Amino acid sequence: MAGRKKAGTIAHTPVEELTEKAARAELERLAAEIARHDAAYYQSDAPVISDAEYDALRRRNDAIEARFPSLVLDDSPSRRIGAAPAEGFGKVRHRVPMLSLGNAFSDDDVTEFEARVRRFLALKPEDALAITAEPKIDGLSISIRYEKGRLVEAATRGDGTEGENVTQNVRTIREIPHALKGRDVPDTIDVRGEIYLGHADFAALNAAQAAVGGKVFANPRNAAAGSLRQLDSRITASRPLRFFAYAWGEASVLPADTQHGMVAAFARWGLPVNPLMEVCDGPAALLDYFRRMGDRRSSLGYDIDGVVYKVDRLDYQERLGFVSRSPRWAIAHKFPAEQATTVLNAIEIQVGRTGALTPVAKLEPVTVGGVVVSNATLHNEDEIARKDIRVGDTVIVQRAGDVIPQVVRVVEDRRPAWAVPFEFPHVCPVCGSHAVREADDETGEADVVRRCTGGLVCPAQAKERLKHFVSRDAFDIEGLGAERIEQFFDDGRIRRPADIFKLEASDRQSPTPLAGQKGFGAKSVEKLFAAIEARRRITLDRFIYALGIRHVGETTAKDLARALGTIGAFRTAVEAASAGGPDSEAYEDLDNIDGIGTAVVDALVAFYSEPHNVEALDELLKEVTVEPFVPVAVTASPVMGKTVVFTGTLTAMSRPEAKAQAERLGAKVAGSVSKKTDYVVAGADAGSKLVKARELGVSVLSEEEWQALIGGG
Ligand code: IVH
After folding, report:
1. Is the CB of 221 inside a 6 Å radius of any atom of ligand 1?
2. Which atom of ligand 1 is the closest one to the Cα of 244?
3. 141 lines ligand 1 (CB under 6 A)
4. For 630-687, how does the pLDDT look when each residue is reduced to its tens digit (9 = 90+)?
5. 519 CB contacts (<8 Å, ≥6 apart)?
6. Does any ligand 1 atom lie closer than 6 A to the CB of residue 96?
């Protein structure tokens, strides 16, 4: 097919014929070019191309991304929805973070959620536990602040901590009142909920856009997001955005003591709320609700992607609290994944941060649930063998929510005669080192994952570690995403974490300074250096997480930070355990930290025994300051700084709740008893830990004595 000649600077190769390499280059070029036009249009008010030409550039960018989803750049124009540069909006810090929800995919997950809540609250089987159920709206969440009943500020979720100030645009949404009515409206309250676009309005908007050659949106969610993030609020005003209120952030006083009471108050104040919310008692009622919503899904008139369950009583919500980014008192039950059939063109092996070889299916692009999919995970070699997946096969793929698409199974009667079983490589495709399946210490069974043994010698591993290092939950360096790390690694600018912090200095010496390189202007380079400077101070938990040690995720990093307090203590502890080996006291001390098991200790020791790592760490510590761990909102208390072990069955509250409470009071909760334990709190049927406490002469408290000590909680 001959390429159609288009206006402006559009390339001529049809998207279908682009190679991956050409696509990557063109996406970079398009991102830079569109950013330039955005700046000309929005900042200088002096567009240099026509709207139609501009739209053609964006459409081409979208089409290439749809074909090569893995190539989408961090700073892709499609991520800057609505063509509005992110800098166009001021930032707003959320006074109470906007969290996300954990997911349930099966009936069992829901039953387990209810049981988990009951366990945490130490409820008896006969105690009632009301849980609300409501549709999960597929829009974008927003926090709207009312002071003295008047709308004063509205912000997008952003990263959950900081969002964009979209007050002017939210004021144009007719469904959102500028003033709340009623006598019980609090002095201040952040009302939270979902902004969305109905199906009919979405269709009409797209038809109107198409008629004038404007942007056609892939789905109502994107259209709602694009409409809200317009720098010109007249555009937002012209889009029939809608809103449901379902949550809140900071509030000077609450008008109710239940979730459904809160939503009823929202409705009285004049806020739109979803009429389909119900209060359920028990998992069977929740599942019944889920089925009914599934049946009604297509006739609701707006997109929902599941239902949300929330513990109704607010005092229970308070006690349950949060775990990392989601509340323990709520969960999203997602509708089943959508499926499609396509052909598997190739199996590519990717090498991860810890050397894991992950097979990825390269698929003939296919639309699944409104999104074009061309890659899917195949998990590991056993999975490929079990499902007998071969190159050339016709396969069923599915995707659910934001989860990476998966290959469900092969359609066997459509297998070509030439298809042969896949042979998983035994050497790393990137560095050529042996790739092995380690045997489990205990079972002796081979690990499902085959790993490259190249360590930091393997460029793939080194790159992935750097990407992890700068990622959102680690150093979170703005403007230094995966693509840039790839580029800076390949051109030798960044090889180890410390190089990031030396980048500005090394750039001054460089014969090829960044400013002027493809994709970089003087301004963007300046911004990048500023973003790096801003991260020279980091909290201990983030720092530990950033090191990318195997088995040390966010939660484990926090557990380590909480127990050890400072980077010095962390190093001393790991060094001593490495020197002393598994039988040493130092090893046991680490193992005793609550939440830490031998797999983590072994991984810490393995990390430390590698001279490369210690060197890289030393070098890094010359560049950054690691702040000591500050426990969250600790209230001064008699148990501050004490180490406590809970054992036996507690009656007033469950073990996790007791632990959370103790930590709020500044105590450290350990998993086993040692000389360093200050108190053992023994419930009914306490066993070996109690014996050990007596042996070591550690104070043993009954549950009541413990409650008395901490002043009743
Ligand atoms: S409650 C603390 N209720 O789902 C929990 N969220 O993954 C606050 N969402 O970011 C959220 N419908 O954008 C809640 N009825 C509903 C929802 C809902 C949609 C979205 C929301 C949130 C995401 C959580």
Report:
1. no
2. 15
3. yes
4. 876 667 788 888 999 999 888 888 888 888 888 888 888 888 898 889 999 998 888 8
5. 28, 31, 32
6. no
The verdict on whether 463 is a catalytic residue reads no
What's the CA gap between 711 and 663, in Å, rounded? 15
Q: Which atom of ligand 1 is nearest to the CA of 332?
A: 7
Query: Are 374 and 67 within 8 A, CB to CB?
Result: yes
Helix, strand, coil percentages in the chain from 3-state DSSP, rounded to 5: 40, 20, 40
At 61, the pLDDT band (50, 70, 90 cuts) reads confident
136 contacts 297 by C-beta, under 8 angstroms: no
Judge contact between 489 and 466, C-beta under 8 A. Answer: yes
Per-chain mean pLDDT for the chain: 89
pLDDT tens digits for 563-589? 999 999 999 999 999 999 999 999 999
Is the pLDDT at 5 greater than 70? The verdict is: no
Tokens for 660, please give them. 């959370």
What are the tokens at 193?
């909920």
Q: Does residue 454 have its Cβ closer than 6 Å to ligand 1?
A: no
Instruction: Name the residue type at position 351.
Output: V
Residue of the nearest CA to atom 23 in ligand 1?
Answer: 100
Amino acid at the residue 104: A
Q: Return d(Cα 473, Cα 467) in angstroms, integer.
A: 11
Q: Is the CB of 101 under 6 A from ligand 1?
A: yes
| pLDDT top residue among 219 and 511 | 511
Cα(526)–Cα(132) distance, rounded to whole angstroms? 50
Tokens 């501009």 locate to 54
* Catalytically annotated residue among 6, 21, 124, 136: 136
Which atom in ligand 1 lies closest to the alpha carbon of residue 310? 1
Residue 71 CA to ligand 1 centre (angstroms): 29
Which residues, in sequence order, are CB contacts of 581 under 8 Å at separation 6+?
Answer: 587
Containing 368, the helix (H) or strand (E) segment is strand 357-368
Q: At 306, list the tokens.
A: 């599941």
Digit-coded pLDDT (tens) for 111-157: 999 999 999 999 999 999 999 999 999 999 999 999 999 999 999 99
pLDDT at position 82 is 35
Average pLDDT of the residues in 225-238 = 88
Residue positions counted in the chain: 713
Provide the 8-state DSSP code for 300.
Answer: S
Cα 282 to chain center, whole Å? 29
194 CB less than 6 Å from ligand 1? yes
Query: What sign does the dihedral 654-656-659-660 (CA atoms) show?
Result: negative
Rounded average pLDDT over 493-520: 93
pLDDT in tens, 465-496: 999 999 988 999 989 999 999 999 999 999 99
Q: Which atom of ligand 1 is nearest to the CA of 140?
A: 13
What residues are paired with 327 via a beta bridge?
322
d(CA 135, CA 277): 7
Tell me the whole-structure pTM to 2 decimals: 0.56
Residue reference for tokens 């205990």: 442
Tally Cβ neighbours within 10 Å of residue 212.
Answer: 9
Mean pLDDT, range 178-206, rounded to an integer: 95
pLDDT score for 451: 93
3-class SS letters over 507-571: HHHCCCCCCCCCCCCHHHHHHHHHHHHCCCEEEHHHHHHHCCCCCCCHHHHHHHHHHHCCHHHHH
Contact present, 486 and 24 (Cβ < 8 Å): no
Q: Which of 96, 99, 132, 136 to mutate to test the pocket of ligand 1 (most atoms within 8 A of CB)?
A: 136
Q: How far apart are CA 42 and CA 33, in angstroms?
A: 14
Closest CA to 569 of 560, 578, 558: 560
Answer yes or no: is pLDDT of 4 > 60: no
Cβ of 100 closer than 6 Å to ligand 1, yes or no, is: yes
